[in-house]
Amino acid sequence: MSAATSATGRRRLAGAAALGAAATTAGIALTSTSGWLVVRASERPAILTLLTAIVAVRTFGIARPLLRYAERLRSHDASLRDLARRRAETYARLVPLTPARLGRRRRSELLTAVVDDLTDVVEGQVRVVVPVAAAALAGLAVAVVTAVLAPPVGGVVAVLVLATALVGAGALRQETVSQQALLGAREEVVHVSQLVAAQGTEVRAAQAGGAVIAALDAAQAEVARATSRQSRGRSATAGAVLVLVGAATVSAALLAAGLDLPLPVKGLLVLTPVAVVEAFQPLVDAVRAAARVRGASVRLIAVLDQEPAIRDRAPDAASSGASAHVTRGPHVPRLELRGVCASWDGRRRALGPLDVVLEPGSHVLVTGPNGGGKSTLVAVLA
Prior knowledge:
By secondary structure, this protein is mainly alpha-helical.
């Protein structure tokens, strides 16, 4: 959750997490109670002895979608309100930084930071905070209830919750690394594509089409490799969760078999780890969202957390009526460059070293072959 989230937004998210935990718990109770009901019904008791379980199954079945719907309404309302507020704040902080503090950032990079990254950061409240809090609360509640019925099986459920948390932490680390590589590759694809689309004429004039296409192919190949690494990590995480649930189910069955409990209760205990997996299914998506939020926060802070190059006049100066003005004397300054070099990408020199002196009222003709640096010189002078 962002530190900038308002107190009202935090209360809304806390309420959404509680509703999500209740919905998840209702789903787990639905599966476990259904197991008890099936086993008990196989014993052919009087139907009146099953009415409580039947009503409970119906109640849990109705409560789960209703609670989930209420959780989505509350969490999305809080997120959208916060997004509107944060967008206004972001643009207000961005205006004083234009253009001096934007540095060599590409247009695509800046747009990604103030639009997509900000959206990812705010949506992290819905995609990360609420699911993780709901799963933690539901897992804790199920572990406590199971421990009351059968302490050994309750220990198995607690170990399952902790082991899944460890798997999630490892998956977050792997996802963060792969996400950074993937975003860097995609940014390069966008940059080269924008170059081709916006400056196609200049690329052809400089006879750089082959180099540009080769750069695009290399960037696209890197995207494919990064996507493949990311997919393997996600598959490993999903598989690890299933393995943990399978091991917990087998352990619960072995422990329940040796307990002095009614057979329907044993069926409930065996199905509890299987039901718990429902609480952990959203965690795979939450890990992905958490990695996006982490990277987006770093990029957004890098853009916005800067001192403006130009500040407004101090309040005391404004109140005293002081003002700034330019005194125009008889001497007009000249423009002089000595040993200037310039590069567009920070690697290949596009200009210089060059000496240029522009006297007041003089004219200088700049000539040279395509790609010689004429446009770069004009950009430097500007």
